[in-house]
User: What shape does this take?
Amino acid sequence: MQPYFFPYLGHFGLIANTDEWVVFDITQYTPKTYMSRNEVLKGSGGRQQIFAELSNSSIHIKTNEARLRDPDKTRMQVLGSLTHYRKKAPFYENVKGLIERTFEQLNASDDPGSLVNLNVAGLQCVCEYLNLNFNYRRASQLDVQFDQPMGAGDWAPAIASQLGASHYLNPVGGRALFNPTRFESCGVKLEFLSYEALEYVTPGFQFEPNLSVLDVLMWNSADTVRKHLARACSITPHCLSPATQCL
Assistant: This one.
């Protein structure tokens, strides 16, 4: 999966159901996507963005080449965007600490200016907070070979087969992207995960769905979120057609 910036809770439902996670950081970077921004509740109502400003945001770079303009400024911007939760969200201090740990981990990494390192640190810290196993590798550091040219749905079976995976799990929203025959030819079983969104009470604010995991964790304990993920995710195999037995 692409490395997203404090992604929505369903992303962690996918992590919770995988044995190994590949950070897909080797293709063209796409500006103004969830790789560098997300949303939380706005104090005056609706949504507001949290984001990581880049010094080289461009379609002419690869994802692993994206550079943070100022990591500490990004940290302060994210924390500042959450201050209106302070007196109303019961887990504000927990999330504040989670964000601080994310940037501490970034600063201790081999490249503190890397957007991918920031996003991976965010995934790691959230998974630690939720007690989820996050066993990951970065695609840019793998010794795998690719045919040229590669279509959007070709990367996954190529990587999964060369890593020796028996199954590949993708969010159900991406079903149309993949050709199950490609996975069959690689000896990999293609499956999809459905996620039932968590609705929760936000006193003093109007609830908005599918915000950053930071918003979810402001209002819900780690135990509540972990239990929701356990019952809100379901895995189904890919079906060629309604009349065809699922693979």
